[in-house]
Amino acid sequence: MVGGSVGVCNSGVSGWCTTLRFMQINNAAERGLELFGSVVRGVPGDQWGVATPCAGWDARDLVGHVVGVLEIGVSAIRGGSLGGSLSPVSVGDDPVGAWERTAAVFRSEVADADLDAVRETALGAQPLSFALTFPTFDLFLHSWDLGRATGQEVRIPDDVVSWIDGFLRQLPPERLRSPNTFGPEQPAPADADPTTRLMAFLGRSV
What we know:
Radius of gyration: 16 Å
Mean pLDDT: 88
Order of helices and strands: HHHHEEHHHHH
Structural class: mainly alpha
Helix content: 40-55%
């Protein structure tokens, strides 16, 4: 493995570099894999069809989406661009098994990746460590979504909340708020914990 945090960013996104330096992407990805995996394994067998906070997706679809996003991440590590459909891939009758297989491949690829290598992203050519922030964010945010749908309380670690929040608040509004990203900010209780405040900011009803 080479690198692990962003040292430079290209023009137009340099303001995010400071935020990214405080979170090693390989460490964050491993923590996200552990969190999402624990929630997936905690889904009762009769709840794979329940609706989630992600409009139009049930619990099975949500796992299929995260599996697909990790597959895009694997492709980027192997030399491809960071892009592709965000629609859920099929996880069949075994969403837990599909998750475990894909997570194992992603974990192995990240461990051996040259994180300073440059890949094409929607924000232009960026270090792989930068490109992998997006699938890593998905692991944490969708842990909450899946937990909310299936009766599991999920708390994202506070340092990760700060990392995600600091990054996303620097996105232009047209990138942050759209049907394919996040909805309008929702109200949160005055005494809400950091995870709840983050999810409300990202359009979830809390």
